[in-house]
Specification:
Blueprint lengths: L3 H30 L3 H27 L21 H26 L3 H31 L3 H11 L19
Length: about 180
């Protein structure tokens, strides 16, 4: 089903998604250590989301009867200069992932792998939301870095409730754990 070139690139993307998950745990732990529970919770949740993205990709490869390579990942950045740095890092990461996902679509199109292209479309839509969320959060954190409780209030107000699952999301291997 999926072309070998697309399978190779999707396996690389799985590594990027797991690395993003680890980075978000590191961000969350930093905020936990700063007694900023809303920021910590936000990044713990982001970590689970990134892990689930990787598992969606794993499920696609399994369904396509393609080789799945579960990668090791580099250690995340754990030292931050201030409370702005982890969010700035997260925004850079989301922008990079957007480019990677666009690259996956390019590979699928070049290979005339229409099923894989359709699979990746959901992730492209997701990246618009991720970049927007991180951009807004960075603006709030930069403005409020001297008063971190304003950031906590913003997160309670804007991201305080459980989000509904997207019924259009691809299935994850092992279920969305």
């Amino acid at each position: 089903m999926a072309t070998p070139r697309f399978v190779e690139r999707l396996n690389e993307q799985i590594a990027y998604e797991f690395a993003a998950s680890q980075q978000y745990i590191a961000n969350a732990v930093y905020y936990d250590s700063q007694t900023l529970p809303r920021l910590a919770g936000f990044f713990y949740a982001q970590s689970v989301e990134e892990r689930n993205h990787a598992m969606m990709m794993v499920r696609y490869l399994l369904d396509a009867d393609a080789r799945v390579a579960i990668p090791g990942v580099e250690a995340p950045e754990v030292e931050f200069a201030d409370i702005v740095a982890p969010v700035a890092l997260a925004l850079d990461q989301e922008r990079r992932v957007s480019d990677q996902i666009a690259g996956l679509i390019s590979v699928a199109r070049e290979e005339s792998d229409y099923l894989s292209e359709q699979f990746v479309q959901w992730f492209l839509k997701e990246q618009v939301e991720e970049v927007s969320t991180m951009s807004s959060l960075l603006a709030v954190v930069e403005r409020s870095s001297d008063s971190p409780m304003f950031i906590e209030d913003y997160l309670a107000r804007e991201h305080g409730g459980a989000e509904a699952e997207d019924p259009t999301a691809p299935a994850a291997a092992g279920g969305a754990l």
